[in-house]
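INFO batch 0412 | record 1 of 1 | parsing
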Amino acid sequence: MHSHLHTSYNANCEEIMTALDECHAKGFLHKALGNCNDIKVDVNKCLSAERYQRAKRNRDEARSNRRRIEEIWAKERELDQGPAVPPAAAANVAAAANTGAAKQ
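INFO prediction complete | emitting tokens
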């Protein structure tokens, strides 16, 4: 079973879907004898490819949006906490503070 065929999501499959509709219109016996099976397989392949492309676009868009949101969050954290200090620089600052305390 498949979803509704003639939608804007499936515009690239319109020609083959129309051929399937025409095959089905030839009557029950024509369908029952399997005369539309090859066209049906082609429709399923086309719909599957369309769904895959749509899912890929959605995934890529979601990743892009997530990157953008995380950049905004990082800027907000920086404003709240001050500039972020890389771990190596923080270790150098701590070591310098310990050395200064030892000299006194």
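INFO post-check: The CA atoms of residues 9 and 51 lie 8 Å apart.
INFO record closed
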